Amino acid sequence: MKEFGGKVLFLDRSDINTDEIIPAKYLTEISKDALKPHMLEDLKLVGFDPRSPGVADARVIVTRANFGCGSSREHAPWVFEMNHINVVIASSFARIFRQNMFNCGMLAIELPESAIDRLFSHKEGAKVSVDFQGNKLTIESGKRKETFDYSISEFDMALVRAGGWVDFADARY
Amino acid sequence: MAMTLSEKVFQAHLRDEPFPGTKVLGIDVVMCHEITTPIAINDLVARGKDRVFDPEKIKVVIDHVTPAKDTKTAQQGKILRDWARRHAIRDFFDIGRNGVCHAIFPESGFIRPGYTVIMGDSHTCTHGAFGAFAAGVGTTDLEVGILKGVCAFREPNTIRINIRGKMPEGVYAKDVILSVIKKLTVNGATDCVIEFHGEVVRGMSMESRMTLCNMAIEAGGTSGVCMPDEVTVEYLWPFISSEYTDKKAAVSDFRKWWSDEGCEYVMVLDIDVTGMEPQVTHGYKPDQVKDVSMIAGEPVDQVYIGSCTNGRIEDLRVAADYLKGRTIAPTIRGIVSPATPKVFRQADEEGIIKIFMDAGFCVTNPTCGACLGMSNGVLAPSEVCASTTNRNFNGRMGKGGMVHLMSPATAAVTAIEGKIADPRKYGKGGTK
Questions:
Q1: Which of A118, B97, B223, B268 would staple B128 via disulfide (CB 3.0–4.6 Å)?
Q2: Which residues pair with B305 in a beta bridge?
Q3: Using the 8-state DSSP alphabet, how is residue B217 labeled?
Q4: DSSP conformation letters of B38-104
């Protein structure tokens, strides 16, 4: 199974849609690799630069409500995967995006808004580590360290363990 | 126990419950287009599992970029085309016979009440207009659907919307759904099915019901749903006439899918349309909706009429009523994309294509077109499009561009005036 965690990219806005994560003009690509340079290219967020080093180093995204709304394009999780981001932590997700993450064996973790506020209080340079078996995640920045319990469904846990939905479904149906 | 329509559909299609709360359903129709399917096909080939669960239940169309605009889109078409041939998928709509997926599949009679439908396209919720459970999914869910004919869902909750009153002049299904999204907000219906009830819905055509259900996803909804009735039977009759002795028998059979009296809703919303104004979005989220009178006069560069939301014959008729005998402002680029060849042909026979052309519109072939900025009709930075489509996201129709969503009537009069305009001042059907 994958290792989950690393440096955090904070995206402090709700309703970030999949057009912003990967614009439709790149959906003509038939390899996931070709998506890589275009992650978050159209994100409308003051001060955000998709070319900054903080974006390139990120392994975890922390964001607000309804992340991944809009188009069903799995290119959104794929562009994260191609940029070595395999955890998104938000106060809520759009259904299709959330399932696409787990279907690809990646983590979409929901936390209450109060916990999301705590995560945001850490700001730049923070790192998140995920204890997948223990359903816990820890954020660390400077001398501060905080741990949060989360829950994801048994089915989504099984998908991550199986490496995604195709392998799970192929073994079972 | 009293059940909702989608609970009944879930019960009838349940194949497996691998964990509490997760239901794996058998799928009746797996729909495919050239944007989200080729990567699924390539993955199946790479895994040595290039199979399909049932070629009769797979429906395929090239619609997003057609004719192909470059080598990459030509390749996407080729992967889909070769695959459909390899697996003897009969219902494959290639150029000349293709149209927007959520218009051409229902038009071809593929959707029935009580069906489960998936597609790698978020606007799959459209097909719930027939009393089906129809959900957009990602490429991996699509891939498993193609291979195994199943898909996993959390059982959705249901929101009931009662739409009552008398539709005012100049107000259409698009205005109603925009006002619903404004009330629900962009995630108010996440993990929910939205049921549309009430006298206004019962009086709507299938085209209007599809417009309502199409935008359920803009409130986060899994599927939009209407109860299948006489209107549904009339639309489907050419495809189901051999299965029933008469239309009445079909109506009474479809009735079994209706949500029961006393079933459980997580929310019930009553909407009276009587005093409703035409609705227009501003900003970059589909729940940012205003009455047209608050936003009339705002500048526009392009007007787009088409898409899975409003590219059907009824939509073109409405726009043509306003455009007849008029020309669009010289500063406006008008583009109309009839959603299917049948719609195009019908519009031609009814003189609607001529009305559009006389008014100064460019008429394109049936395609998703300008809606998502990956084919034709792309905006330049800072340009504004008044559009009958479904998403006003930042960059949706081109980087730096802005989109105002509205009905075909509002779009037509906006084209005429060169700025956002109110169709009501043109009287009933644009006759004033």
A1: B223
A2: B336
A3: G
A4: HHHHHHHHHTT----S-GGGEEEE--SS-S--SHHHHHHHHHHHHHHHHTT-S-EE-TTT---HHHH
Select from A65, A70, A104 the Cβ nearest to the Cβ of B391: A70
- Show the tokens assigned to B22: 């997760």
What average pLDDT does the segment B87-103 reach? 98
| B130 DSSP 8-state letter | G
Is A69 near chain B, with CB under 8 Å? yes
Q: What local confidence, expressed as pLDDT, does residue A123 receive?
A: 81
Pairwise CA distance, residues A165 & B14, whole Å: 18
SS3 for A10?
Answer: strand
Structure tokens at B334: 């008008």
CA–CA distance, B319 with B388 (Å, rounded to integer): 10
Burial of B96 per CB tally in 10 Å (0-12, 13-18, 19+)? exposed
Q: Do domains B5-270 and B280-430 have the same CATH topology?
A: yes
Q: Which CATH superfamily is domain B280-430 in?
A: Aconitase, domain 3 (3.30.499.10)
Contact A169 B15 (CB under 8 A): no
pTM of the model: 0.97
- How far apart are the C-alpha atoms of B131 and B46, rounded to whole Å? 37
pLDDT band (50, 70, 90) for residue B173: very high
pLDDT at B369: 95
> Residue B220 is nearest to which of A28, A69, A74, comparing CB atoms?
A69
Q: What is the pLDDT of residue B430?
A: 75
Residue A12 falls in which region: left (phi positive, over 0), alpha (psi -120 to 50) or beta: beta
Which residues in chain A are closer than 8 Å to B39, comparing Cβ atoms?
30, 32, 74
Contact B16 A173 (CB under 8 A): yes
Query: Span B250-278, mean pLDDT?
Result: 98
Domain boundaries, given as residue ranges, for chain B = 5-270, 280-430
pLDDT digits (tens, 9 = 90+) for B417-429: 999 999 999 987 7
The tens digit of pLDDT for each residue in B283-330 reads 999 999 999 999 999 999 999 999 999 999 999 999 999 999 999 999
Residue pair B345/B351 in contact (Cβ under 8 Å)? The answer is: no
Burial B161-200 (b: 16+ CB within 10 A, else e): bbbeeebeebbbbbbbbbbbbbebbbbbbbbbbbbbbbeb
For chain A, report the end-to-end CA distance as a whole number of angstroms: 22
Residue % of chain B over a pLDDT of 70: 100
Residue range A5-172 in CATH 3.40.50.720 = no
Interface TM-score (ipTM) > 0.90: yes
Three-state DSSP at A43 gives coil
Of B430 and B354, the structure prediction assigns the larger pLDDT to: B354
CA distance, residue B344 to nearest chain A CA (Å):
26
Which CATH architecture best describes the domain B5-270?
2-Layer Sandwich (3.30)
- The per-residue pLDDT for range A58-76, each reduced to its tens digit, is 999 999 999 999 999 999 9
B366 prior amide bond cis, ω within 30: no
Does pLDDT of B336 surpass 70? Answer: yes
Q: Do A30 and B79 touch (CB under 8 A)?
A: yes
Averaged pLDDT for residues B251-274: 98
Q: For strands B29-33 and A107-110, give the pairing.
A: unpaired
